[in-house]
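Sample log: adenylate cyclase.
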Amino acid sequence: QNEYYCRLDFLWKKKLRQEQEETETMENLTRLLLENVLPAHVAPQFIGQNRRNEDLYHQSYECVCVLFASVPDFKEFYSESNINHEGLECLRLLNEIIADFDELLSKPKFSGVEKIKTIGSTYMAATGLNATSGQDTQQDAERSCSHLGTMVEFAVALGSKLDVINKHSFNNFRLRVGLNHGPVVAGVIGAQKPQYDIWGNTVNVASRMESTGVLGKIQVTEETARVLQSLGYTCYSRGIIKVKGKGQLCTYFLNTDLTRTGPPSATL
């Protein structure tokens, strides 16, 4: 009887270890899946918690740089015919473009860049959304907005990636980029299918900088141009343009070429 209970105890412990290993594997898998959907500093908020549908994760930030980079020529390129399998080949090329853009996020120098989403052929990203960003209000403006330089380098890298794709696909796509910085509110909407997004006037103006921009150029607001100049970049005035919903705005072009193969230097 003693031997029987010893064997039974051994089997129970063995089964417990197996269940613990399976649980740990599932937790790691859940964490990886969440970090693919949500930023790394947000995912832990949703692990091991029974959040209710009405619970809202949100965080305010004082200085976030928002980028919209689009490939306007893709709309004309897209067509549905028997030759391209009713548009499937066009979507395959778009997927290749977005996937190559995503590859840049794994580089250490772009670790502070957070992809927000894609809207058609438009890529939306932001910097300054790290865990301490909305809490560091005591820093001076120049230091707290130093990540704008990272976003400029990321925009140039996007152009370089697109050039490589053009070379292999025999196309002539060009980027149209808009940048703006300022306060935003970040949050996660949804319970079953959570979506991380950012909101605010900063985001709206960044989108307008892209839609009213020029192919091959990075258009920024006057305030963003002022910060970039303090970081060593050169901007030149485009003049006063009409921006839908914002009236007349003075905008600037960043003095860099999106066809460059490397990041901008401090003398741009």
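Observation: The longest helix spans residues 2-37.
Observation: Helices lie at 2-37, 73-77, 88-103, 141-144, 148-169, 201-211, 222-230.
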